[in-house]
Every structure is written in structure tokens, then in C-alpha cells.
């Protein structure tokens, strides 16, 4: 198993936020953690990223504990956080520069990926020159270049308008089919979770527990117009019931 989160609990100021969380991500899977705002998604994300310590429980990456060890997984935050004064290329290659690769070599290594990520011709532009969707693609490319076994994406598409978001979902599934980046995706968007994930964990109740786990069969994703199908609606109803909304 790539990632195993076992019996993780965390409180702030004597208030338990997440309780006895168990989840896993297998190699190549896209798994969503779905919960309403304030349910503790970011709290769990920070624990997996090694930025925060749980009160109890363990986090294993490839069978090795990564508790309190930042830098073991790559992550992308809600806001893309590209540096405004660096060109797109210079933003994207940061993970390579951090590992000591020379800028010239980093640019050579990243060059073919600009086309893959739909950023050809924008290498020398600045983040402000890009659309919101392009900025998210650049941030995702930067996350990918961290070259860690697992990527944590915290609501990567939440700041986008509905049409751009839908286009980016299609793009995301295409690129994932090529790069097979194992991903734990945090979202509060039920449709997004259903469209993008192999499996979904629903975070609900107070304190938050994993209240449901839903596998989306590949055949459903492959079907045309999955989003308009009865199966989609049934799964959405189930999640709405899980979330008590
Ligand atoms: N460092 C902290 N100190 C005190 N309370 C905190 C801290 N971090 C988070 N919390 C509390 O934990 C709860 C869960 O917050 P968290 O950010 O994990 O939720 P979330 O599901 O990611 O929400 P959103 O979708 O709005 O980002 C909130 O009530 C928040 O106020």
C-alpha cells in the first residue's frame, strides 16, 4: 500500500476535530477526501504532509512512518501560490532547483512537460498573464516535478468558475491517465469527487469520522455522460445522505 492512515485523531483546544481516521491510497489511485467546510480536511492534510502532529494514530508511506516529516509527499494548496515575480518556467522548475539541479538542466527536463500540461508558449510569461485554469495547471506541473510517490491536492479547482472547472476536470483525467500520479484530493465538491476519483472517503459528523467509502467502477467513468447518468445521481444521493445535508 502506498499511503496508510491508521486511527488518526486530532483535537484543538480540547475539541476533537477528526476521530479515528483510517484511509489508504494504492499506487496510481486518485482518492478523494470529501467533507463540508470545517470538517477537518486540511487538518488531516497537514498531518499527512508532516506539518502537524496527530494526538494519536500513524501515517505510513510505503510502509514507513512519515509522521512529522515534511517533504515526503508533494502537495498543492487551494491557492496556486505561484510567485508573481518569477516566470511560469521559473515557478514550475522550483522543485528541481531545490534538489540542486542546475537551472539549465531543470529547464531542459521540464520542457516537454509544458506541452503536456497545456502551457506551451507560456514559459516566459508571468503568472498574472495566465488564466485561472492555466495557473492551476502550472501549479499542478510544479507539484508533479516534486517527484514524490504521492501528491496531496487541497481543493485545487475550487477557485475556478464552473465552466473552467469542468474543462480542467477533463484535462486532469487525461493527464492522470498519462502520468499516473497517485493522488489524495481534498474537496467539498461532490460532483468533482465523483468525476475524478477511483474512490471517495466521506468525512462527516462531529467530530469528523470517515462515514462512508465509495468505489467508482472504471466502467462508470468510461461511460459517456457519466455525470448525467442515474448511477451518478444515486451515488450523489448517497453522499448527500452521508453528509447529512
Ligand atoms: N491550528 C488550529 N488551532 C485551532 N483550531 C484549528 C486549527 N486548525 C484548524 N482548526 C479548527 O479545526 C476545524 C477544522 O478545520 P480544517 O481547516 O481542517 O477544515 P476543512 O475541512 O479543511 O475546512 P475548509 O474546507 O473550510 O478548508 C475548524 O473548526 C478549525 O477552526
3D structure, described in words:
By secondary structure, this protein is α/β, with parallel strands linked by helices. The protein has two domains: 3-73 and 148-243, Rossmann fold, CATH 3.40.50.300; 82-147, no CATH class. Helices cover 37% and strands 24% of the residues. The protein is built from nine helices and ten strands. It has helices spanning 41-48, 88-92, 94-98, 103-116, 132-145, 162-179, 190-196, 218-222, 230-243; strands spanning 3-12, 15-25, 30-35, 56-61, 64-65, 74-76, 151-154, 183-187, 199-204, 209-215. The strands form two sheets. The chain has a six-stranded mixed beta sheet with strand order 6-7-8-3-9-10, sandwiched between helices. Strands 2-1-4-5 form a four-stranded antiparallel beta sheet, covered by helices on one side. A hairpin with a 2-residue loop joins strand 4 and strand 5 (64-65). The longest helix has 18 residues, at 162-179. The radius of gyration is 18 Å and the shape is globular. The mean pLDDT is 93. Bound molecules: adenosine-5'-triphosphate.
